[in-house]
Specification:
alpha/beta; Arc Repressor Mutant, subunit A; Nucleotidyltransferase, domain 5; 5-stranded mixed beta sheet; 5-stranded mixed barrel; 29 helices
Length: 700
């Protein structure tokens, strides 16, 4: 079966559509482009399915590459038979392939290898026959030699050979793997003497849980405790069951030779197969936990960067502080820096701070105030609200702002500003447009992950890059205002091309049409095709340049307009004219009804933003954990969603946890079914542990 057939079979997709998508990807088409502008080719696959298709393609290519290497190795050593070649050709996973190859893999000098070198393999074969009349010592006697000093040494060597054969037997390994996965259990214990230092892992000091059902956060927590040398973690299986698995493939007779086989199998499991299986299952469970944790992280990141933007409002942004004061900046509607100051309301200078705030608001006609939610955030918010300024005060999650302020991007944007001032700018811009600002920060620094530093960093980066790219392209960007970093996430625009776009923009005074992109260095026909539809040119003479209609479809729109006796602008403005369009008249070999329906929907609301409308939010009059008591009902903002619940900011500098069991009266598979990052919720305080700074909340 060819690769598209294998992908189609594994993902249950149409093979012909898989072939078309693979061809597009091979030509450089991105997932957002295929999902948005090639629905006919993909059969309407969404970005999630397309990402799975890409990942499966890469996995199968890696498998094929490994198969070729194995076959080459076997052929070079003259070990390849027709039967072995067929087995290798038929395998569907790397694990199965490695099991088949294991007995033929070039080995270091194991105990079994040394025994074979000493001529003991025929003795192992004699023992495996387990003839009732055979005496193992008598069988071993002829094998005593200069390299085998006595009968016991001969028998021990033969047992080593049998043990290794069992441990490398593909059937035994496959069954044992299923046993470890389905019936095995994690066993976690605190390392003696580490109880106090490792107190944060106290939940795992004496813990046991099935491998098959252990949720990702517990697997990652136990592994972290083990890595930090506070916990011992192991995987156990029932001895009788493991014995029965081995005996199915290596039966044991009730005679003296059978006793030798029994000893060999026990040793083979304890010394070889058991540790190998534990290592493998630890890896498999880690990979599963990583996938689940990365999925949660990506979902949270999507919600965070797709949060409702304030839009083109003039903003005062404050990075709060006590001793060093509150760094205060003013930004215009486009997020451009206007002025900065430092105020000290927390150390008694309230009058001068109030006067400075009022002066800046009046001077720059500011419409909103953004306050970072870190140290002194609530105190600063209270100070501002007491001034009755008649403009909204909004708390902004500042996670990662300090990372941005010290980054290369920040230095390039504001080479003359102190990094603390840059942090305040980032807070203000996050309010104006979360997506445009958060793309400048490493996703791992935005505070919405679950053990993000414990998971496979390569897979995490791929998933988060996919997420950011998906969000940026679904919203689209203003070609004349977007940063190079934001542009770099647009389909077809590499960082180098994005920088070229910004340079061209700066040199020419801005873009007046999408067509000008073709003049940018590095943007050829393929790159233009990939990026053009996701870029907007505000104020362009051609209204389609302000929409998500792709330039390749402009001629279709012009035909539609002509057919209903108007121009493109008139078609976009008149619902009555659009109703006259008969879509079937415009179907071509490569433009079907899905694309035509998308075009008409875009004409109705050109360049529409899929994000929700911004709404202000205020915390209750609580400021520290000491202000809380059981039964309090408070408004809050969801800051993180994990497998075990949701963390909610209620304005006391410590997020509370709504355990999954307290999220809903209905049974749910995952908290994300009920809440998402940035969601406004009402919660009830159900417990406060001041010593551990833990707050328990409920939504039911």
């Amino acid at each position: 079966m060819n690769i598209q057939g294998r992908i189609a079979s594994e993902l249950k997709l149409d093979s012909s559509k898989v072939a078309e998508v693979l061809a597009l990807m091979g030509q450089g088409a991105t997932i957002p482009f295929i999902a948005r502008y090639r629905k006919e080719a993909s059969g309407g696959m969404d970005e999630v399915v397309l990402a799975s298709l890409r990942d499966t393609w890469q996995k199968l290519e890696a498998l094929d590459k490994r198969k070729a290497a194995v076959l080459s190795s076997l052929e070079e050593r003259e070990l390849l038979t027709d039967d072995l070649k067929k087995k290798i050709s038929d395998v569907k996973s790397l694990t199965e392939l490695e099991d088949i190859y294991l007995p033929f893999r070039p080995k270091r000098r194991t105990r079994a290898a040394k025994a074979i070198e000493s001529g003991l393999e025929p003795l192992a074969d004699l023992l495996l026959k387990q003839n009732r009349e055979d005496d193992p010592e008598l069988l071993a006697l002829p094998f005593v030699s200069d390299s085998v000093q006595d009968v016991e040494t001969a028998l021990a060597g033969a047992r080593d050979i049998i043990a290794e054969r069992m441990a490398q037997h593909s059937g035994v390994r496959a069954e044992m793997r299923r046993l470890f996965l389905n019936k095995g259990y994690f066993k976690c214990k605190v390392i003696k003497g580490k109880e106090e230092a490792g107190s944060r892992f106290r939940d795992w000091f004496d813990w046991s849980e099935k491998v098959a059902t252990a949720p990702s956060h517990r697997v990652l927590a136990m592994r972290r405790g083990e890595r930090e040398l506070f916990l011992n973690l192991s995987i156990h299986v029932d001895e009788e069951t493991t014995s029965s698995v081995m005996r199915r493939h290596f039966p044991i007779m009730e005679n003296r030779c059978g006793e030798q086989i029994h000893m060999a199998l026990e040793d083979g499991f304890k010394r070889l197969l058991g540790p190998q299986m534990e290592t493998e299952i630890r890896l498999v469970s880690k990979e599963k936990a990583d996938r689940e944790a990365i999925s949660v992280f990506a979902l949270n990141l999507r919600e965070l960067i797709m949060a409702a933007p304030l839009g083109g409002k003039r903003v005062m942004a404050i990075d709060p502080g006590f001793r060093t004061g509150c760094k205060t900046v003013c930004l215009d509607e486009q997020g451009r820096f206007l002025e900065y100051s430092t105020i000290f309301p927390a150390i008694g200078k309230t009058d001068s701070a109030a006067a400075e705030v009022k002066k800046l608001i009046k001077k720059h006609s500011l419409e909103y105030i953004a306050v970072g939610n870190g140290t002194a955030g609530r105190e600063t918010e209270s100070f501002l609200r007491a001034l009755e300024l008649q403009i909204p005060v909004v708390m902004v999650n500042e996670s990662g702002a300090s990372i941005y302020s010290a980054s290369k991007i920040a230095r390039q944007e504001f080479p003359d500003l102190d990094l603390t001032i840059r942090g305040a700018v980032s807070i203000g811009r996050r309010l104006q447009d979360p997506l445009a600002e958060l793309v400048k920060i490493d996703p791992g620094s935005v505070g919405v992950g679950q053990y993000q530093h414990d998971v496979d960093q390569k897979q995490l980066k791929l998933a988060l890059d996919d997420t950011v790219m998906s969000c940026v392209n679904s919203v689209g960007v203003n070609l004349n205002t977007a940063s190079a970093k934001l542009l770099s996430y647009i389909s077809g625009l590499s960082p180098a091309r994005a920088s070229s776009v910004v340079k061209f923009r700066d040199d020419s005074g801005g873009f007046v049409s999408r067509a000008q992109l073709k003049k940018v260095a590095g943007i050829g026909p393929v790159a233009f095709q990939q990026c053009a539809g996701f870029l907007r040119v505000a104020g362009a003479s051609n209204p389609l340049d302000r929409s998500a209609v792709h330039p390749e479809s402009y001629s279709i729109v012009k035909r539609m307009a002509t057919d209903v006796q108007t121009d493109v602008k008139g078609l976009m403005e008149s619902a009555d004219k659009r109703k006259l369009i008969k879509l079937s008249d415009y179907v071509t070999a490569d433009r079907g009804m899905p694309t035509l329906r998308d075009i008409v929907a875009e004409l109705e609301k050109p360049g529409r933003d899929p994000r929700s409308v911004f709404e202000t939010f205020s915390f209750a009059d609580v400021h520290t954990i000491d202000d809380l008591s059981d039964g309090m009902k408070l408004p809050g903002l969801v800051t993180n969603v994990t497998d075990f619940g949701a963390f909610v900011d209620i304005g006391v500098h410590t997020d509370g946890l709504v355990h999954v069991s307290r999220l809903s009266t209905k049974w749910i598979k995952h908290p994300s079914e009920v809440v998402h990052v940035g969601m406004k919720v009402d919660v009830t305080v159900t417990g406060v542990e001041k010593s551990r700074k833990r707050i328990s909340l409920s939504m039911i």
